[in-house]
Here is the input.
Amino acid sequence: MAKKLLEIKNLKQYFNEGKKNEVRAVDDITFDIYKGETLGLVGESGCGKSTTGRTIIRLYNATGGEVIYDGIDVHNKKSKKDLKMFNRKMQMIFQDPYASLNPRMKVLDIIAEGLDIHGLVKGTKERTARVNELLETVGLNREHANRYPHEFSGGQRQRLGIARALAVEPEFIIADEPISALDVSIQAQVVNLLKELQEEKGLTYLFIAHDLSMVKYISDRIGVMYFGKLVEIGPAETLYTAPLHPYTQSLLSAIPLPDPNYERNRVRKGYDPKSHKYLDDEEVTMREVTPGHFVLCSQREFDSFKKA
Amino acid sequence: MTNNLEKLPKDSFERITIDSTHAEKITKPSLSFWQDAWLRIRKNKAAIISMFILAFIVIMAFVGPYMVKFDPQEVNVTHANLPPKIPGLEKWGIADGQGKLGTKTLDIYEVKKIDEYYWFGTDSLGRDLFSRLWMGTRISLYIALVAAIIDVFIGVLYGGISAYYGGRTDDIMQRIVEVLIGIPTLVIVILMLLVMEPGIWAIIIAISITGWIGMSRIVRGQVLKFKNQEFVLAAKTLGASDSRIIGKHLLPNIMAIIIINMMFTIPTAIFFEAFLSFIGLGLQAPAASLGTLINDGYKFLEYQPHMLFFPAVLISLLMIAFNLIGDGLRDALDPKMKD
Here is the structure.
């Protein structure tokens, strides 16, 4: 197995901690991301997928737990220099292409922002050259550099967001629902671009989405989240063919296929957390059922999974 | 149909290839936000006319006092209470120096044997009203502009800090504002003017002492709106410092609203200054502002209506012009907010 790039250990993100309206957006999740892979993170709206991504990249200060990048805990670092190094290695692509580009800045300045902050280029000439190169990488024209974001379509804007993230030459990119705001025909464009870039530059992705078929297409491994908890994680193929956790089964049963025969007979499963019937003294943790395939379950459930 | 097509001569067709690199081309000329706003405000006739009127008033406030040979503060009791007399216009029966003396209407200039022309007449102390009017306009504009700049400065800083740092800082700062806004403005202003030495700065401070609150609330709202937008988060993930985020991302986005609000603050300040002067808390003689001129004029409204007429018209023009420009700017800078 490939080298571990990122280890997330018992990550917790609580909002309004200790108050009546406490929200446990991310509740004690643990997983690893390997170098060069794409980990898809799926789950229903509001289950904490985006919060997980944002906490990993330090947009929020974690309530608890560790994020270890290449052996270094990124949440305990204090010095500005270390933080900057980390900012270069890890980047993010945002969900809403209309909100993620500053409407008052030219494309040139938007993409060059990372270059400026990290002092990666010397002089205007090199800066423009680098931006042009990045624009071409994401399939846009160099003439676009002097335009404002409102002149672009949604797909073009999302590609500008990708170019901005690529400017600092990151190793790891968190894609926070990068395609959910786009037209279906444009979704493929952006996803294919991400795939090409991964092959070219050896990038590692955390791909957050709720479009299951798209996640299956792009991911090597998939994690399923439910109410702030990671309920199942495993290789994409295994997870799709043999889902173990009832929530994953419910989620997969909801995928429509363009096949009338299949659709007529498709059984949609519901999921009720009470169906587990956990006892008070049972410990519910992530357990490895088959190599690399973890499920959140009790010992009793684990045994029954093993048998099956 | 298909048969006909086959008979078409081959040489009348030309093969073209589409260059895929042109697919993403944008032909529309690139316009910055401000160029775009200018295109929109150009169509707003009221705002454009107001701009010309305002420009005229501002220019006159600087050159007006020097267009006539009289000093705005020079008292000449023998020339007191003269009606307006303008060369050229006098033949048509307007501004011809006619005024009431007792029950009769006479040419006062002839009665008093005065050869000079006082374009807008004189006041009860014989000071030339034309030069006084523009001098007064200059001081009113100065007070309003400085007060507005102070409002913007404090308001943006206070509102910006309150919203950007949020949490407890925001709570404490907003409670302070609520206390301040609970005290009636006029009470604070009168107390301030009693304590301070009367003069331009006393009025400016009196206007600014609570005037920044409105601006700070607007700025706070805007910063709250923008600080969690994804483009700001993107800048954070790139490692941008707070000063960079504020300077490059937040300020340019709220600049339009600050300018619009300032355009409405200036006429309010002019009006407030006039009000203070009118109730006798403003500038002291011989200094003049539009407020003191109106105050002087209204005492002689029955016999010397010109003394009230000119400053009143000017202050109305200023108010209307500023408000129409502000309206036009709001529509131009923030098309989504329209109606």
Notes: Chain A has eleven helices and twelve strands. Chain A has a mean pLDDT of 85. Chain A has one domain: 4-227. The CA atoms of residues 163 and 222 of chain A lie 25 Å apart.
